[in-house]
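Dear colleague,

Thank you for sharing your sequence with our group. We've completed the structure prediction you requested, and as agreed, I am returning the results in plain text so they can be pasted directly into your records. Please verify that the sequence below matches your submission; if there's any discrepancy, let me know and we will rerun it promptly.
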Amino acid sequence: MGRRHTLSVALTTLLIMIMLGSSAAPLALEEYNAASTHSDSGIHAEFNHPSIVVVGSQIEPMTFDAVPAFGSEAEGDCTPPIICPQPEPPVKVADIPSSGTLGQNSGMVAMDGMLYFDANTPKSQLWKYDPSTNSISEVTTISQSSAYGGQVGKYGGFAILDHILYFDATESASGTELWAYSPLNDTYWMTEDIRPGSAGSKPGSSTGLIPMSGKLWFNAEDGTTGSELWSYDPTSGTAEIVADLSLDHLALLREYSLV
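Please find the predicted structure tokens below.
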């Protein structure tokens, strides 16, 4: 009787442990299957397949770990199970009217969801492409009387500063100077006539147009000091010479009695 009672108590205790769960050890076998190599391509990959581990009455989350695979797919081996992306043919998104072509001055620049570029139709002007409407439109009509138009971005290219697009452009009367375009009110203007007359200052011809510290920096020729470092401040709307390197050079020579 005593032995039967003891056995009954032990079985009852074991049943309770099974029902409530035990933290001592899993009640189910944890099993991992390793898939290894794509023999044809020479790619080695080890994958731990998803598994479920029952610990007492708790089900642990599924896990998945993979070792990155590198190999022949880099050379175009797309045999199964490797899946390579399929190339897509190029699509013409817009056609410049009047037998026009993209300009060869400065490429393209993106600003606020638009693409800006120079195009010849046949005169060089600033154009923009709107991907939301899949349409292009001409932005400027600078120097329409000239056979070459505005020659947009020919010397300094494009630069963006505080949502304003800056570029050099050529007008018949003022020559090549720094211009700006604001998409906010769809207006463009010459920022300053650094070198009065048709010769122009050719801003950025050596340096390009560099936005930094709230200003635009570039080389320019004012007809007096030669090509020097200039800056343009959008807040004041003025351009100024930063340093006359030729004078500094002469001062250095005089300091050492070389001239």
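Summary note from our side: The domain at 101-255 is CATH 2.120.10.80 (Neuraminidase).

Kind regards,
the structure core
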